[in-house]
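Appendix B, Record 12. Input sequence as logged:
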Amino acid sequence: MKVVYLTNQICGAGGLERVLSIKANYLTEALNYEIHIITLNQKNANVFYHFSDRIKLHDLEVEGNSINYILNYIKKLNVCISKIQPDLISVCDDGLKGFFVPKVLRYKCPMIYERHASKMIFKNKKDPSFFDKIKISAVEKLMDFGAKSYDAFVVLTQYNLSEWCLKNIKVIPNPLSFYPEKQSSLKNLKVITVGNHGYQKGYDLLLQIWKKVIDQHPNWTLDIYGKVDSKKKHYRLAEQLNICEYVNFYAPVKNIEEKYQEASIYAMTSRSEGFGMVLIEAMALGLPCIAFDCPCGPRDIIENLHNGFLIREGDIEGYAKRLIELIEDEELRIRCGSNARKTANNYEVEKIVAQWDLLFKNLTK
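Logged structural output:
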């Protein structure tokens, strides 16, 4: 089967790019699909994650101001799709334009929209203005309208399911890229978190929590892996809190599996998540996880006192208390870590991609 994935770019180190590489590689190498990936403007940037040499990459090189950009996008996309002649198209574009691809394509085949983010991401702005709220409402209405044009609309969690009033909707979670035999010893005095430094990830909250933790456990360190914002506001916050010697900031790394293995606890403080890929990655290495009960992913993955802790949103005191509990109680850490491994097993790539394979075949038969 010939499948096209349409996405903005694959040169980043984000969750969408990671998931796309996992699925596309498995479909190509294990299930013998012919996979094409269309990007908008890579600008000759190197890809961060590995993509099979058998996958065909097409870059539209879309440029111009707002109007010309959209017109060029529509024109070049139609030309590219007509040349490929796919059996099915899957759109992985969380922007508004992604919702209207079926409306602008002349070539007709079954089309899937993969939603990798919650609607909450548009509301995750600090102190939104009245104009921002009107804009968010308008965007949501346009997304709801465009979503109905797809043959299937796939979301990541049960919470995501409740955000959309669609008949063509289905839940397929993200797959794991690894499930190693060797897991963390849970002996190292280290907590890890992975993700960009945007407001959504809540590192401002995490640093406040960490201040409370190291007041009692100054021998522990926090490792943060992710692309830093240009203002480096979290560096400055760590300085203000006088905790710089207890926090390490690192750029994204390809060998993140090794970094999970070196840690003993995974801490997430996101204000919202599309899924929470990092949680199942950490669990695959046997790490107990702690997160705020934010929309959308953590509550689908973390079960209180079983594989970690879910904390009421914004409860910094409660979060610090539970994190300290995991630090002080090695038996609890080991028990939750063991259960976390079992949870992660449900997301192994062959199990998740089998669901995609079935959906593709049902839509094209």
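The longest strand covers residues 2-7.
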